[in-house]
UniProtKB/TrEMBL annotation:
One of its GO terms (cellular component) is cytosol. GO terms for molecular function: L-methionine-(R)-S-oxide reductase activity. Belongs to the free Met sulfoxide reductase family. It comes from the Bacteria. The lineage of its organism: Bacteria, Pseudomonadati, Myxococcota, Polyangia, Nannocystales. This is GAF domain-containing protein. Residues 36-156 form the GAF domain.
Length: 162
């Protein structure tokens, strides 16, 4: 089994290089989506400043909670609701440095201060989103979104239900 090791003093680029290599190794040869998303959530939770990391799956019109690491989470998010719903509707990554300033933010965790959400898309089909929260303001930036978009492409290639 591959382990996820964050080198001391590593910058974000080095951290994400290790994350993507670990993600690829973890999912290689494993056909079970839940197992893969669970392991990937565990890796994402180790990123600097992350207080919650997980996946929401597109089920019908809603985003439904998938594997995650952190405090209890909202189970179902309606179309276009909150940061997750907005990222899903726009089919683009959203970086929110101050969640309290985001119109319609859903406060699943009252301690959350910043968030990044990246849609998982295969072709024209929205499969879900990657969602990371932090209890630190402005913990995420466009570099995080860029690297997480690469992870989302890997996740989109997994065996999702029809």
């Amino acid at each position: 089994m591959h382990t996820f090791h964050l080198p001391a003093g590593a910058d974000r680029a080095e951290i994400y290089t290790e994350l993507l290599a670990t993600a690829q190794a973890l999912v290689e040869g494993e056909p079970d989506l839940v197992a893969n998303l669970a392991n990937l959530a565990a890796c994402l939770k180790q990123l600097p400043g992350v207080s919650w990391a997980g996946f929401y799956r597109q089920v019908g019109d809603d985003l439904v909670l998938g594997p995650f690491q952190g405090k209890l989470a909202c189970t179902r998010i309606g179309p276009g609701k909150g940061v997750c719903g907005a990222a899903a509707a726009r089919r683009e990554a959203l970086v929110v440095p101050a969640v309290d300033a985001f119109p319609g933010h859903i406060a699943c965790d009252a301690d959350s201060r910043s968030e990044v959400v990246v849609p998982i898309v295969r072709g024209e089909r929205l499969l879900g989103v990657i969602d990371l929260d932090s209890d630190r303001p402005a913990n995420f930036d466009d570099r995080d979104a860029e690297h997480l978009t690469r992870l989302a492409a890997l996740v989109a290639g997994l065996a999702w239900p029809a």
